[in-house]
Design brief:
GO biological process, one term: rhamnose catabolic process
Family: Belongs to the short-chain dehydrogenases/reductases (SDR) family.
Largest sheet: 7 strands, parallel
Strand content: 5-15%
Number of strands: 7
Keywords: NADP, Oxidoreductase, Rhamnose metabolism
Pfam family, one: adh_short_C2
Number of helices: 9
Organism: Penicillium diatomitis
Length: 268
């Protein structure tokens, strides 16, 4: 028996939706009946990945009268990119109900050897990009005066709560995303806009494939997780649907939801 569609009539925009967690959320939102826009960086390296994604989208949309999916190209580290992404989403679908700030980078580096260029790139993408894109989404939601307000979801990380010796430039940005969602929950509550953070644990994506290619490190990481396995991008899709659905999470705002297989509690 098929599950009920929980997001019919909703319009969602997801930054960094071409791969990993963003891709999994985009596909699940489509399965639940939403119209979805994703942002992507662009360039020929993405052509094959985009082609595969479009095939999956077409399978979900088979028999539909019109497409419920668009892509928008732009560098999220630039403040104008978030504004353009929101504008093109509204132009295509007429509104914005759900915004997922997901785009991010993670390159491991030794703290004492960390170059200013990598630090600045990480902050401008993961935190500044999240701030300006979230601001653009919130402005659109506030001015539309939708009865449901809207839902903004920031993809933070378990790294917002713990340290990482080779992530000294990365963990502060994810702590910043968590704090941004908490503060936005306060700032935007009067508009009925809910703001929450998802905190993935160790999720196997293109960001950490190289790091987890070492069998011994992979075994070590799995051994710390009570559920006994690394996470996969679809593990974040269900929680993202929950936070997007007014009927399920209409009184949830300012919250942080760990999706980590129990890793955090096992680190204590």
């Amino acid at each position: 028996m098929p599950l009920p569609q929980l997001l019919v009539g909703k319009v969602a925009a997801i930054t960094g939706g071409l791969t990993g967690i963003g891709r999994a959320i985009a596909l699940e939102y489509l399965r639940h009946g939403a119209k979805v826009a994703i942002s992507r960086l662009g360039g020929p390296k993405e052509d094959g990945i985009l082609k595969d994604l479009i095939q999956e989208v077409n399978q979900i949309e088979e028999g539909a009268d019109q497409t419920r999916f668009i892509t928008v190209t732009g560098d999220i580290s630039q403040p104008e990119t978030g504004r353009d992404f929101v504008a093109k989403t509204v132009e295509a679908f007429g509104r914005l109900d759900v915004f997922v700030s997901n785009a991010g980078i993670c390159q491991f580096a030794n703290f004492l050897e960390l170059e200013a260029s990598l630090f600045n790139q990480t902050v401008s993408t993961n935190l500044s990009g999240a701030f300006f894109a979230t601001q653009a989404a919130a402005r659109q939601m506030a001015q539309s005066q939708s009865p449901s307000g809207g839902s903004i979801i920031g993809i933070s990380s378990i790294s917002a709560l713990v340290g990482g010796g080779e992530q000294t430039h990365y963990t502060p940005t994810k702590a910043g995303v968590l704090s941004l969602m908490q503060s936005c929950a306060v700032a935007l509550g009067k508009y009925g806009i809910r703001c929450n953070a998802l905190l993935p644990g160790t999720i196997r994506t293109q960001l950490n494939d190289a790091d987890l290619a070492d069998p011994e490190k992979k075994k070590y990481m799995e051994g710390r997780i009570p559920l006994g396995r690394l996470g996969q991008p679809p593990d974040l899709a269900g929680p993202a649907v929950f936070l997007a659905c007014d009927e399920l999470s209409g009184y949830v705002t300012g919250a942080q939801l760990l999706v980590d297989g129990g890793l955090f509690v096992n680190l204590q």
